[in-house]
Amino acid sequence: MFNENRIRIWRGFWQLADPKIWIASTVPMAVAAALAYGLEGKFNLYWFFWSLLGVYLIEIGKNAVNEFVDYESGVDTYVTPDKRTPFSGGKKVIVDGILSLSEVKVIATVTMIIAGLVGIYVVFAREPEVLWIGVAGFVIAVFYSLPPAKLCYRGFGEFAVGLTFGPLVLCGTYLVQTHNISLEAVLSSLILGLLIANVLWINQFPDYEADLRGQKRNWVVRMGKKKATTVFAALFIAAFALSAVLAFIAGNPFFLLPLSAFPLARRAVDVARRYYDDIPRLIEANAKTVQAYQLTGLTLMIGALLNKFL
């Protein structure tokens, strides 16, 4: 019985952690490392590891907080089976009976405490100026769902995700590596911030009815799915426009490589506009948006490294 219970908790922890979505933070951190090496010839694997660990722990903690808040508000219980997708509906560990509400709260508390300790170590042993970036990321992660702020319930979730997984994670990682922040890092962070906000944006479509019923007033709920597809397209356009600005300011034409993700973005927008109310068909738009984010991150890395070697 003890072994079965331990296996259940371990399985629930990893479902809650959901490593496949760590790509949201891995991409900006990898881009930051490539920029640090490509622009300044600096890369420290030891401190990159601690940066990764701290951010991953915050992600797990944020997932856990979001899970129990959405369960207590009823949002997760309102998601009907036909609206469940791999990209939406929460982690489902409480709804599916894998973990209890109290177990999820314990995971949230423990992971956030350890993340805080990791951050303190990085600040005092490597880079004191990263403190405020770390504090901002920590606070946003905690209050993304948690009262009294409940950012994602009050229309600030999209901004919070874009800010965190764009400027905070990328510039924070770059700062730890180089002890400064370059304009190229800032522009790259804005590109990725817009794209990861767009991943959240399209992932909110399947949860529209449940979020509306649970008073989760994100911008897709506020605007309605049809109008929200226009913003979905605009965020892609803004990200690709910034790629051109980055290439011009850096004097590096290889920073135009992110434009290779344009066909993925265009397909995602076409699908969203046609099938915003047909969730099974909309899933292609969810997938293409994630792929556009990944390809943009990869090409930013290539652009940075080619700057070093060519």
From TrEMBL:
Listed GO cellular component terms? Answer: membrane
One annotated GO molecular function is: prenyltransferase activity
Keyword field? Membrane, Menaquinone biosynthesis, Transferase, Transmembrane, Transmembrane helix
Question: Which Pfam families does the record cross-reference, listed alphabetically?
Answer: UbiA
Q: Write out the annotated subcellular location.
A: Membrane
Q: What is its main location?
A: membrane
Q: Report the protein name in the record.
A: 1,4-dihydroxy-2-naphthoate prenyltransferase
Q: Please give the organism.
A: Thermosediminibacter litoriperuensis
